[in-house]
Amino acid sequence: MKAELPAVTFPGGRQVPALGLGTWHMGEGDASMAEEANSLRTGIDLGMTLIDTAEMYADGGAETVVGEAIRGQRDAVYLVSKVLPYNASRSGTIAACEASLKRLGTDHIDLYLLHWRGSHPLAETVDAFETLKAQGKIGAWGVSNFDQDDMVELLDVAEPARPLANQVLYNLARRGIEYDLLRWSQVQGVPIMAYSPLDEGRLVGHPVLNEIGRIHKASSAQIALAFLLTRPGVIAIPKSGSPDRVRENVRAAEIRLTSEDLRLLDEAFPPPTRKRPLEMI
Ligand SMILES: NC(=O)c1ccc[n+]([C@@H]2O[C@H](COP(=O)([O-])OP(=O)(O)OC[C@H]3O[C@@H](n4cnc5c(N)ncnc54)[C@H](OP(=O)(O)O)[C@@H]3O)[C@@H](O)[C@H]2O)c1
Questions:
Q1: Mean pLDDT throughout 176-183?
Q2: DSSP 3-state assignment of 27?
Q3: Is 197 in the pocket of ligand 1 (CB under 6 A)?
Q4: Which of 90, 103, 168, 250 is 20 to 30 A from 201, alpha carbon to alpha carbon?
């Protein structure tokens, strides 16, 4: 049965689930590729229909796994991929997108992100994104690892076009964006995609998360994800290559954290009290 997942609405009205599927480290070894595709299909069946990938992951291998997972059900999925900064020139962005489309086995990517800021001028990358959009090869574009000052600069450069989302590191152990970028993004209507929502697995087994989990009959991973789901305009994209853990992760949406739970989380993982540069993995 499909879980009732909370949704986030992108500018323009498209709704996506607030819990999606990450793919970093997928496609790195032949043996696990079938299991990885199986995990993604499990997530899609359970309503985690947003999949995040990138040309960088396993040098295209993760996109190949995603292509396998979505074969025959492309329209059920909201597909996000990313161009590497080194490729993000006017012509390089278009070539990178076309290569990603081939690996993904589709004719369009729903949301195409600049993976992080590099040396190519933003205006060139935006120009290429707009060309890809006009050609129907992408539905929308956005960025990743952009701090608030980068976003302000981007909005200025891109106008009247706008980024659809900003994907950044955000989890209980990395709450820096709560000082400024999160609120700014909510006011601007630019959803945040929270990457490494389990801090690459490091939050799993944390004693405070275990303790709160005991009250909710939930795992530490589920509590870490439930925390992100309390934030409006935030989409968390946990990665798991195991269908069982994907089933576990989706059930985070059933947890209602209380104000006492949130107080305990603030105590164990204090929110920022001053500006810190955006962290990246
Ligand atoms: N834009 C960027 O620069 C950027 C950077 C990093 C990540 N990302 C995106 O964000 C996605 C998620 O981040 P991430 O992969 O770095 O880290 P993550 O989702 O925070 O953690 C993934 C790790 O946690 C494990 N895990 C998942 N669910 C679990 C559960 N229920 N119990 C125990 N362990 C669990 C996974 O192992 P198993 O697979 O063995 O289950 C994996 O080792 C990436 O896959 C990628 O799509 C983007």
A1: 98
A2: coil
A3: yes
A4: 103
Q: Is the CB of 239 under 6 A from ligand 1?
A: yes
CA 202 to ligand 1 center in whole angstroms: 10
- 17-38: per-residue pLDDT in tens? 999 999 999 999 866 899 999 9
pLDDT at residue number 1: 43
Please say whether the structural domain 7-268 has been given the CATH code 3.20.20.100. yes
pLDDT in tens, 98-133: 999 999 999 999 999 999 999 999 999 999 999 999
Alpha helices (runs of H) in the chain, residue ranges in sequence order: 30-45, 61-70, 90-104, 122-134, 148-158, 181-188, 207-216, 220-229, 243-250, 259-268
Domain boundaries, the chain: 7-268
* Ligand 1, atom 38, residue with closest C-alpha: 240
Burial of 82 (0-12, 13-18, 19+ CB in 10 A): buried
Does the CB atom of residue 41 touch ligand 1 within 6 A? no
Q: How far is CA 68 from CA 33, 60, 122, in A?
A: 9, 13, 32
Of the pLDDT bands very low, low, confident and very high (cuts 50, 70, 90), residue 226 is very high
DSSP strand pairing (15-17 vs 7-9) = antiparallel
What is the radius of gyration, based on Cα positions, of the chain?
A: 18
Q: Which of 63, 40, 73 is nearest to 112 (CA)?
A: 63
Q: What Å distances lie between residue 204 and 108, 219, 272, CA to CA?
A: 35, 8, 22
Residue 57 is a catalytic residue: yes
Does position 144 have pLDDT exceeding 60, yes or no?
yes
- SS percent in the chain: helix, strand, coil, step 5: 45, 15, 40
